[in-house]
Amino acid sequence: MTDTMLNRRQEEIVALVRREGFLTVEILAERFDVTPQTIRRDLGVLCDAGLLRRYHGGVSLPSSVENLAYTARQGLQQAEKQRIAHLLARHVPDQASLFINLGTTNEDVARALMQHTGLRVITNNLNVAIMMSDNPTFEVIVAGGVVRGRDHGVTGEATIELIRQFKVDFGIIGISGIDMDGTLLDFDYREVRVTQAIIEHSRQVYLAADHSKLGRNALVRLGPISRVNAWFTDREPPVDLQEALSQAGTSVHVAPAP
User: Fold this and answer.
1) What is the model's pTM?
2) What is the Cα–Cα distance from 48 to 120, expressed in whole angstroms?
3) Span 140-149, pLDDT tens digits
4) 179-192 residue pLDDT tens
5) DSSP characters for 141-208?
6) Which of 2, 89, 176, 207 is most solvent-facing, going by the fewest CB within 10 Å?
């Protein structure tokens, strides 16, 4: 699958379907005041990218048991991810120790951290490890385990065992979905177990997740958002979620739009 660059309407269509579950071509054409042919072209792009699933007369969400392809995720919300990454990087001091786990947003975080000095990084993301090893002042430790060809992530018991040998300043994590009650969700239980170990062995946990993760279905429960000290995102969370965040004591940092 090739990278997919979405226009604003296509991104809004995905957000609407995530919120409402199923929408017809006619409803979408009326919502956006465009022709049904225009909507069908948009849906063709979105379904080809794996973001939506076509049914007779409309579209719904893809499976809750399988994530989007890595290359598709790379092409989504690129500007938002970069703003989130730069904001989070400003909250990590030089000479800090940190975990960085899997995800395209975390790869942007790693890129934003490249101007730091003296970081000690433990990661199960080979893309992050290769990138950050180019800074001669960094020490980068790669967790062992089984390598996933689709995104160069490393998971398994060996990964968890290495993580448990450390106690770091910051655990930087990504997530596939955030329920409106604050539950963090993901697709792969092996990846979830690694992230749970990162949370347990970090003094501060930073979540990097853009607005598209809100209300997104995923099968595996990681835990409550109270496990996160700070969430870095690109939009203010909806009112329904703000109450859960307040009760959890999780601070929210919104990356300003350009």
Assistant:
1) 0.75
2) 40
3) 999 999 998 8
4) 889 999 998 899 99
5) EEPPSEEETTTTEEESHHHHHHHTT--EEEEEE--SEE-TTSEEEES-HHHHHHHHHHHHTEEEEEEE
6) 2
